[in-house]
Each structure stands twice: as C-alpha cells, then as structure tokens.
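Q: What does the assembled structure look like for these inputs?
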Amino acid sequence: MIDREQVKKVAHLARLNITSEEEEQFTTQLNSILDYFEQLSELDTENVPPTTRAIEVSNITRPDELEPFHSKDALLASAPEQEGQYFRVPQIMASDDA
Amino acid sequence: MNVATASKTEYEAVIGLETHCQLNTNTKIFSSESTSFDPDNPNSNISPICLGYPGVLPVLNEKVLEYAVKACLAINCQVAPYSKFDRKQYFYPDLPKNYQISQYDLPIGEHGWLEIEIAEKPNAEPVRKKIGITRLHMEEDAGKLNHGGSDRLAGSTYSLVDFNRAGVPLLEIVSEPDMRSGKEAAEYAQELRRIMLYLGISDGKMQEGSLRCDVNISVRPVGQKEFGTKVEIKNMNSFSAIQKAIDYEIERQIEAIENDEPIYQETRLWEEGSQRTISMRSKEGSSDYRYFPEPDLPPIEVSTEQLETWKAQLPELPAQKRHRYEEELGLSAYDTRILTDDRSLAEYFEKAIATGAEAKQVTNWLIGDIAAYLKNNNLSINDIALKPEILAELVGLIKEGTISGKIAKDILPELLEKGGSAKELVEKKGLIQISDTKEIEKIIDQVLASHPDELEKFRNGKTKLKGFFVGQVMKQTGGKADPKLTNQLLGKKLQG
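A:
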C-alpha cells in the first residue's frame, strides 16, 4: 500500500507539481497498479535468484575507437536556449544533490 | 569561561576517501566521441548518446572494463563474477539524462586494500599501513557548468553548460574509514594516483580535475567505539590541500565538541584562499537516488581466462617496487620513495643498475644532481640525453678510481645535454684521475716550494692551511689529482 505522503514524495523527487485532487487520484491509481503486481507474490520464488534483466546476454562492449557524431551543431540548435557554443539553462536553485 | 583541566580528552579522527579517477581512454564510456579536455571548445565532443536523447543505445567501451579490472587487481579487490550498471536519479543541469549511469549493488570490485608508506626523513624508519578499500565501480562523468559567466552559483541568473566531460569514464574508489590523519589521507590519495599512473590508465591531474578526492571525516574521543557525526569535505585540488583541509577540519570538530556545539552532518568546501572549510549545505535525510538496473546495458561477466590475461599484463606496482628496493637493494625507505614515485624514474634506475652499477650510488645521482637538473629545466627523466647505461658507466668510473666525484659532477651537465659515453668524454678531455704516487709527490713538492711562507706558518701550528695546499695541488692538476691520495701524501710532506 502506498499513502498520500509517499505520492507527494515521489512527485517531489520527479519534480512534478501536482494538485491535491491529483494526489488523491494518483494514490488510488498507484495502489491499484501495485495491487495488480502483487499477484506475482503468489508464486514461490524462494529458490529463484534475483533477476536484473530479462534477456540472457552479457559482455557487450565496443572498441575504443573515435567515431565523432557528425552534426553537433544540430544538437546545440535543438536546445531551448544557447549562448555561443554553450547550452544555456535557467538559474539553478537549491539542489537535492549534485 | 574556559577552565583548563589536567586530564585533557584525547581525540582521534576517522577518515575515509571517495576518489574519482578519469580514465584516459580515447572515447567516452558509452559512446564514440573524444574524451579530450578542451575547455576552449565547449560542446565539441558531444553526441545524442552522451546527451541522453531518447531511443539511443549506450554501449560499454571495452577499454573502460579492462582498465577497471586492472585497477581492481592493483588494489587487491575481488573482481565480481557478475556485475551490472544502474541508473542513479537526480536532477542537475550538468546531467542531461537526469540520471547518471553508475554501479550500485554489484560493483566491478570490492574488498580491496592498498599499503601506504610514510618516510619523511632520509634515515627514518618508514611507517606502513594497510588501508581497506570498500569498492571500485565504473560510472560516467557529468558536464561542466559556468554560472552566469562566473564560476559561482550564488547570485548568478543563468548557467552555461559544456557537455564535453559528460560521459567521460570514471572509476570511483571508496576507501574504508581507516585513516587517522591528514597525512595518511594525502598519502593514500598519492598512492592511488601512483597506481593509476603505473597502470597507465589515467593522467591523475588533480589541478585539471582528472583525479578528485572527497573526504569523509569525524572525530571521537580515543577509546570510543561509535563514530562521531560525519562531515564531507570537497574542493581540494592538491594533495597538500587534502592534508590541510583534514587537519583544519579535525581542529574545528574537536573545538565544537569541547565547546558543546553541535556538529552537523553536512558537506563543507575547502577554501584555498582562506585555508578553511565552509559549510555548503546540510544533508538532511540522505538523498533518494532511486537506483534501478540500467536496462540498456547488459551485465558483465569477466571470465577467469580474461582475468588471468589482464593480471599477467600488470606492471610491477609501486608498493612491490618499494619492497624490492628496500629488501633486495638495501636502499632506505626515503630513497626508495623518491625513485618509485614516478614509474619512468624507477625504470631508468633499474636499467642503470642492470649493468652492475652500485644501487646506492646511482640513487644518489638520480635524487641529487640529476633531480635538480630536471627540476630546474622542467624536464622528465625521459627527456635527458644521458642514457641509464651511461650513468652506470659514470658511477663505475668513480668506483674504479678513473675519475673523482668532483670531475664527475663537472662533466655531468655535458652528459645530460649532449649524451654520449662518459668514458670517451673523460678521455677526450684528459680528465683521468692522477693516482700515481710519484706524480702527485712531484706536484706537491712544487707547490710547497712556491709557498714557503704558508709552509712555515703551517709548521708553526696553523694546520688549517692544509686545505690551502690541497687546493693548490688541485689547481695544478685541474682537479685531476686523486683527492684521497693527495691528502695522504700532503700530510706526510707537510710534516717535513
């Protein structure tokens, strides 16, 4: 079960401003999602090792060879604001962490 | 009011380091653009992958894995048979994806240690200590921010972001809280740097930020088991700053305890200008990073075979060299530390003694005259024309009495700059030592004959004048007279 305080915390961590009606609504909705997943608990997983991935593949790497991206200017141009060759961002307020 | 008491409480500091070390790969950890440090060309090394565009696929750079495993082996970590990447979520404009790809519960290495050795004075017994290493993991670096044109966040109205550094591979190495002083912590950081340089996987430049150390520190009365409140200090960009910041912080925390003032769990910044730490922000309730497995990157399983291959490629590491030089070559810890601080100097030394030259003599030249020359000319050992074999030859010429140490010093600059054989230079310049008794006696007789006044004063008790006569003999022979023999013969002749 998830309560309203937890919903508020999750919203804060995701930097979402939600109204009190939305808090109520999301608490109900998230609880029904969690209930749905709760069905999985019916299975006995005592002897099943924890899974971090669904695909059986490992050790995918690439050689350390330069292959620069061809249109860097397009990346810069697609940002909301630029200044010279920099991305410009609004004033940074207090952070949770950096 | 402060009342002095006879039984003053003794405190000890508990210190752990978190070190970030940039790897010197050609390309970024998950994408193929350059990692070069290029502050003059912001956003010149960016791609949709390091900027976190939707739908892109990061792929691990094989060199990053190799370097991480080699670093694990070098600091005695157990390499995980199964390791994975995770997303660490937080919001900051230097992090374009709003999460950093890092490793959380299954880092590539755990349970390691390294040995630090402190030998401050030439003849002091070295102090050795094992520092535990909790973990080593791979992660990506973030971008760089310029705040409103200045480097300070406070007061700026906007910020400029350069993502050239975003995605540069990092190793994060977390130590156990095993250090007790600023000196130990600085030595630990230097040893880590040395190991990275010996491995050739990082350039270890603290000034440029390719090696960054954050310190966790608390103090407690000696004998107390529980830790005091932990404070994190950042922003030290040299080893001496690490030491000074810690020493400052120890004093500050002890003073707070003695005055019944609270110590807050917070991050403090070292201010180089004022030589103190200042509060940055309080850490109320640890951050909630909501780690979860990175779905785009498959796990890593390093095979035993691969591990053995990498292990076989490791060079002899600084601590191994120190032990060998001290035990097998009989060098002091102080000399050893200077020789092994830089791998190329150690290798130069080893080449020189391989030809049979005496280790202590070679060391004296390397850490004396040659080190001074390198420092004055801002050169490294590999830049000089004097080959290690020739240094050995020079040491040999002194040992067998062909030239004096003084002559060797005189010809050293030419050898350092022009190279060539020491033996040939000595022969060409006619600098071979005069060790023939008859020849030296002849010169002494001449010198005594042309300085009758001084001779008389000497015989009347002014024995200090012996030095004058030695000087005259040297002058006559262009410094080539064997100094020991000259002294001996002159002694007899002066007595008359």
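Chain A has a mean pLDDT of 88.
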